[in-house]
Amino acid sequence: MLLTFLLQLTARERTRRSNRQFGGILAFVAGAINAGGFLAVHRYTSHMTGIVSSVADDLVLGSIGLALAGLVSLAAFVAGAITTTLLISWARRHALRSKYALALLLEAALLLVFGLVGANLTSFASLLVPTAVLLLCFIMGLQNAIVTKISNAEIRTTHMTGVITDLGIELGRLIYWNHSKKANDIQIVRADTDKLFIHASLLGLFLSGGIAGALAFKAMGFSATLPIALLLIAMALPAVVLDLRKLAQAW
Description:
Layout: H1 2-9, H2 16-41, H3 48-61, H4 64-93, H5 101-118, H6 125-150, H7 161-175, H8 181-186, H9 193-220, H10 225-250
C-alpha cells in the first residue's frame, strides 16, 4: 500500500489527486527548509522577489558587493530550475518512470551536503555561509521547478505569495452577497471551493513545515536536514529502483 502510494506520487501519468499530494508534501518540505535555513544562515532563500528588490536597493545605495551577492543567489535559484528541467527532459526522452524522482534524489543529496557544510560553519564561516546560502537557493529553484513541471504550473511550494493571493480571491468570492436578482441572472459570484481547499492546505502545510523545521534546527542543529532528506529519498527511490531493474534486464 505504501509502495503504491509512493509510486503514484512520482508517476509519469499524473492525476489531480497525486499532483496535490505531491505538492502538499513538498510545501511542508519547503517550509521546513526555508525556516530552518534562516536560523542557519540568516537568509530566506526561496523569496526571489525580495532578493531582486534588495539588489536594486544595494545598487542605488552603492553596495556593489551586496548587489553582486544577491545576483549570484538569483543565479543559483535559476540554475536549480534549469537542472530540474534538464533531468526531467532527459528522463522523458528515455521513457523513464523516474523523470520526477531524479530531481528529488538530487535535492535529498544536496540537503545532506548542506548539513555537512553547516556542521563546519563555525570553523570556516566566511567561506561556508555564502556557500550554504547558494546551496539553499539552488535547492529551492530545483524544488519549485519540480512541482511546477509536475502540476503544469497549478501548484507552487517554495513561496506563498501567489497561494495567499489566490486564497484571498476565493475568500472574496465566498463572502460575496449575491443579493441582486437582476445581476444574478447575468452572473452569480461563487467561490471555487476546490481551489480554496488546496490553497489553504498548501499554506497550512508550508507553515507547519516551517514550525517543524525551526524546532528541529533548534533541537538538532544541521542534523535536522537528515529526516527531510530521508523523506525525499523515500518518495523518489521506488521509481528509480524500477528503472534500474528495467535497465538491468535490458543488458
